[in-house]
Amino acid sequence: MPHTNQQDHIDAMLHETRVIAPSEEFQARARVTREEYERRYRQSLEHPDEFWSEVAGELYWMKRWEQVLDWQEPHAQWFVGGQTNVAYNALDRNVQHGLGEKRAIVWEGEDGEVRTYTYAELLREVKKAANALLGLGVQPGDRVTLYMPLIPEAAVAMLACARIGAVHSVVFGGFSVSALSDRINDAQSKVLITADGGYRRGQPVPLKKNADEAAQKTPTLEKMLVVRRVGTPVDWQPERDVWWHEAVEAASGEHEAAPLDSEHPLFILYTSGSTGKPKGVQHTTGGYMVGTYLTTQAVFDLRDDDVYWCTADVGWVTGHSYSVYGPLLNGATVVMYEGAPNQPDWGRFWEIIQKHRVTILYTAPTAIRAFMQHGDEIPGRYDLSSLRLLGSVGEPINPEAWMWYWRVIGGGRCPVVDTWWQTETGSIMLTTLPGAFPSKPGSAGLPMYGVEPALMTHDGEELGADDGGLLVIKRPWPSMLRTVYGDDERYRKSYWGEIKGVYFAGDGARRDADGYYTIVGRVDDVLNVSGHRLGTMEIESALVAHPSVSEAAVVGKPDAVKGESVVAFVLVQDGYTVDPTELRAHVTREIGALARPDAIIVSDALPKTRSGKIMRRFLRQIAAGQEIQGDTSTLEDPGVLERLAATPPA
Ligand code: PRX
């Protein structure tokens, strides 16, 4: 069994034996039956060209592909020679199919404002925004960074980029000034789209102010397009800044979607790895479109009258694939909510479900555990009878949270789909298709079409059922990342170079006799805090950038709500004292509040081997308050463990 960061959850999951079958009613109406899954899964592996041609053929291509897959490991090209446009497929195609008057986006602001866009209205907005971007000089292939609240304009901006072939790079609005400028610089973006602010827990977040500061360090940035959301005063540089409402309003409503090569880059999204700075995961047009289209339909059992709500912000991959692209490609009605789950109180999600008659809810275990902590009574006040399917994503869901979600939110009637995937995979890879298979709480389940997973040792030896191992994928799939932007070597090494010939996911997993995969967590130095991916190295770099810190080591500690919390061990620079409050504020400035350490342990030494390697294993045990286990004899100074364990965290 590989080492992972979340031992407690793993123990609970491994002893879980409950099996929850979908109701007969759900099964009878399910889009995908067990037989259908088995037939199509087999087809997808045995005749992949035929399978993927069928799926891609349901979408519109300006030019049909000549070859389904060109695989020159580790580089894949899908639907080679084909030309298409994701925004065209999400909008124009649906309007042509008679969905013009159907609601595409039902958006609710944290302040209660509601805005609705039909498919025809959204198409018009996107065409205007596309023309506005062209007017700012954006060319196909140019990078456009988005730093926005979760407002409809964020989806409009993404689709407008896709429409003209510009590559969007969305930076989560909770990231700091320096995280934003680093990402703009790495992508060499020409345009930044932001807003004056966005609401979070009742307060406007000063996005434009952060963007202004970031722009002082971003030489490639030429223009800033600013949405007016909160109406607070902002600084203005007339030669650089453009109001969204002025530019978009003035732009023409006529625009033909650009025919783009299937492998034309669609977006870059930064995510954390175990080493170095965040990686710009790059996705392309055709394969990503096909992958998100297919999985949204199959996994969420999507039907015409569904009201679908994925709570993820567009700053994360879930917000790309399942708040915007996947559901819109399927012509679904998408609910979007700008704010925090506890604003004004912990009933907000349930109120939104009641008000908009949401039928499908897709959210993260961390949110479920937070709701659970506040009791059954709050959701009990709302009418949740519109719900028919629930989904979970982003981190392992512990069986207790799964059962609570199923029982209290789903009323014991809605299947829960636990979906395992990653920024890199683009779309859902493992899940239990609702209606086709019974769920096992805590276990993601079976591979999606075309996905061939396996468990391996680090040496590439394949393991059998019920052996824990490293999760790998044995063949390319359409929505996989194509490279790390500007660093193909890192792409080769991190994903296809760890274990020869397979995609290395960075997760540990087990498989049971029914073939269900249970993800046990990351096997590398990547943390998952409230479903957000953070690299320990990134946080360490931020800590040592503070003058009072000479060295730092960051580990995760199991947390009942967040999954993991950040624990920092720091050594003090001679002549300084460490002020934990100031250090937390510093990390918030360097990365964002999501990386702020929960506990800081100030010490005079770290457990190192004689060759100077920090033994994080021991730090994790200390952080979790566990007895030290394992061979400490390789440590240069084993006494340091006792001293660290005796130091109260600040
Ligand atoms: O460790 C796995 C965990 O989240 C990682 C991917 O994070 P990110 O790229 O930010 O994408 C999150 C949303 C897809 C994975 O390596 N993870 C994601 N979903 C699950 C999960 N762990 C267990 N169960 C899941 N359903």
From TrEMBL:
The keyword Nucleus does not apply. Keywords: Acetylation, ATP-binding, Ligase, Magnesium, Metal-binding, Nucleotide-binding. The keyword Aminoacyl-tRNA synthetase does not apply. CoA binds at R200, R201, G202, Q203, T318, N342, S530. Residues 538-613 form the AMP-binding enzyme C-terminal domain. InterPro entries: Ac_CoA_lig, ACAS_N, AMP-bd_C, AMP-bd_C_sf, AMP-binding_CS, AMP-dep_synth/lig_dom, ANL_N_sf. ATP binds at G394, E395, P396, D418, T419, W420, W421, Q422, T423, D507, R522, R533. Pfam families: ACAS_N, AMP-binding, AMP-binding_C. Residues 100-477 form the AMP-dependent synthetase/ligase domain. The modification N6-acetyllysine is found at K613. It catalyses: acetate + ATP + CoA = acetyl-CoA + AMP + diphosphate. Its cofactor is Mg(2+). PROSITE patterns: AMP_BINDING (PS00455). It comes from the Bacteria. Acetylated. Deacetylation by the SIR2-homolog deacetylase activates the enzyme. Mg(2+) binds at V544, H546, V549. Its EC number is 6.2.1.1. Residues 37-90 form the Acetyl-coenzyme A synthetase N-terminal domain. Catalyzes the conversion of acetate into acetyl-CoA (AcCoA), an essential intermediate at the junction of anabolic and catabolic pathways. AcsA undergoes a two-step reaction. In the first half reaction, AcsA combines acetate with ATP to form acetyl-adenylate (AcAMP) intermediate. In the second half reaction, it can then transfer the acetyl group from AcAMP to the sulfhydryl group of CoA, forming the product AcCoA. Belongs to the ATP-dependent AMP-binding enzyme family. This is Acetyl-coenzyme A synthetase.
